[in-house]
Amino acid sequence: MADVPLESLLADWVDGTLDVAGERVLLERLRSASPAERSAAARNALVDRLIRLDARGPLDAEAVLRALPARAGARLASRVMRRIDETTGVVPARPRRQTPWRAARGLRWAPAAAAVLLVAATAAAWLVVRAARPRLPYGLHVDGSPVARGEVVYAADGPVRLDLGGYCRIRLDPTSALRIEGRKGDEQVYLERGRLACEVDPGHGAFAVRTEIGTVAVCGTAFDLALENVDPGRPTAGRRLVVSVSEGSVRLAGPAGDRLVRAGETAVVDPAVAAGPYTPDDEGFVRHWLLLEPIPVEPWIPEQTEGAMGPLLDRARLPNVPLPRAGDRVTVAGRSLAWRPHALDGWWAVDLESFAQSVHGTEDGVLFHGATYVVCDREIPDARLSAGSDDSSAWFLNGREVLRIYADRYVEKDMRSAPVTLRKGVNILAFTVYNRDGPTAACARFVNADGNPVRGFTVTLTPPEDGR
């Protein structure tokens, strides 16, 4: 079998006709082949058979995984698919001790039950700590066979089951991948993609799930953890981490510092959007906002006149969250909506159209709410809030409406303004925008009597701890 071309071995394996001895030969051949040889073999054997892609195009690893024969052992599939993925550029080579977050240390499971939901891109993972049960002898196993730390495990057509240390059991769903890390009594996995479910016996050791954005260590708690695309339509825009705690508390450790997230709270970590403080841009425009996920409005309102829009803006006040922070959720008309951090790109206006498309799917017939915290070292009297919107909007400072815009046209700078006083300390600037259809945006800045930008304040997305 040593004379059989590598691509033929791969093709037989994909077709399910390669025996156990052939699988061993395939693995050794992949290990000894050069990257160019592996890449060529993968394309010749897999592209034509499985996904019918142009040979010059990228290899579709998800299609390959779905097509793998069920009889192929999970450990072999893990090694082979990792080789294929890395050498054809489908996924980057697995990271080596590099992550934008530090793993939280010193935290251990408490006897209380715990649950974890982990979502990687569009998939998810659950971790459930149940009542203690008889422990298996210590070891690391995949579908009953020993496995070593550092190995990447792929699930092909069916789920793969892992046992870590005799107290943690994992079910890895099809087309998913994880790497086994940690050490005895301190088990850890790195979810590369897909979905998994875990059961952990309390009182026997620690367990953590890492992702490319962060690590969560828990102690007698239940929480959801989501690793999601900032913009599903633009995967290169990056991903953010969303953690919602339902019981107990969790500690998030990262470059921005540690934060304790308690029951009923949600934390959002967006590497591109920190909490601040920030200064306005050169023209004075506020560039950092918290945006509530869009609220559909029924019936659709075609006219952007005061008569048509006034009643909607009268009742569409900011949801009852006096001091929202990134990740907080509110319920509006039976829908659970989250506050999301947002930073302007090169434009001076908040691109509500792109925001709506990324989290809601459509920008038509929806209501937007935005808020930010304006922090002043001193009182600033005789200022003016100058705003613009597409379509109609209402603007609020410290809970009081100060400005309305009725518009059925593209957003412009300084469409309307109103006199305001910025008090010393924290001021809450908020807006509500209704968009009938098409592009939608909003902008705001503070100017003086001459129309020049007001200086002497910063903007932050984090409310003051004392609520003032």
Describe this protein's structure.
Helix 1 (6-15) packs parallel to helix 3 (35-51) and helix 2 runs parallel beside helix 5 (74-88). The chain is α+β, with helices and mostly antiparallel strands and 468 residues long. It starts with 5 loop residues before the first helix and ends in an 8-residue tail after the last strand. Helix content is 17%, strand content 37%. Mean pLDDT is 70; it is low at 47-79, 85-137 and 253-258. The chain has helices at residues 6-15, 20-32, 35-51, 61-67, 74-88, 306-315, 352-359, and strands at residues 114-120, 125-129, 140-142, 145-146, 152-154, 160-164, 168-172, 177-183, 186-193, 196-200, 206-210, 215-218, 222-229, 239-247, 249-252, 259-262, 266-269, 288-296, 329-332, 335-343, 350-351, 366-376, 380-390, 393-397, 400-405, 416-422, 425-435, 441-447, 457-460. The strands form 4 sheets. It has a 10-stranded mixed beta sheet, with no helix packed on it. Strands 18, 19, 20, 22, 24, 25, 27 and 29 form an 8-stranded antiparallel beta sheet that branches.
In short:
This protein is α+β, with helices and mostly antiparallel strands and 468 residues long. The protein has seven helices and 29 strands. α1 (6-15) packs parallel to α3, α2 packs parallel to α5 and α3 packs across α5.
